[in-house]
Amino acid sequence: QVQLLETGGGLVQAGSSLRLSCEASLPTFSSHYMGWFRQAPGKEREFVAGINWSASTYYADSVKGRFTISRNVMLNTVYLRMNSLKPEDTAVYYCAARNTNYQGTDNYTRRDEYEYWGQGTQVTVSS
């Protein structure tokens, strides 16, 4: 059974940093496209960042230059380093995975493109 477990959320002040982790029990972690999404109260879940099988990364414009996605294939873990946090970054952050079988260079930004999801971790940024 595939499980994605996010950790690292919390309450921080504006301008602070956090690092989220997502440990994935995927049999072939490195073949998957891993994405981070977030959902603020009353809003749609939105794409934040993604990393593909070759470690190429892609970001939403709203976080470009502040957030960094990375992974450790030995630990089956993907990270989201968030710097210069703003109150508008407050949301539940979700990790998601899609198997790409080590192929392609597409970036996946829609919820329906992913096979597996974590339960989410809350990030709250106070002003």
Could you please describe the fold and organization of this structure?
It is a single chain. The chain is mostly beta strands. It has no helices and 11 strands. Strands 2, 4, 5, 6, 9, 10 and 11 form a 7-stranded mixed beta sheet that branches. The radius of gyration is 14 Å and the shape is globular. The termini are far apart.
Give average pLDDT, whole number.
96
End-to-end distance: 40 Å
User: How many H/I helices?
Assistant: 0
User: How many beta-strand segments?
Assistant: 11
Q: By helix and strand content, what is the structural category?
A: mainly beta
Helix-strand string: EEEEEEEEEEE
CA-based shape:
globular
Biggest β-sheet: count, sense, barrel?
7 strands, mixed
| Poorly predicted runs of 5 or more residues | none
Helix content: under 10%
Radius of gyration: 14 Å
Strand fraction: over 45%
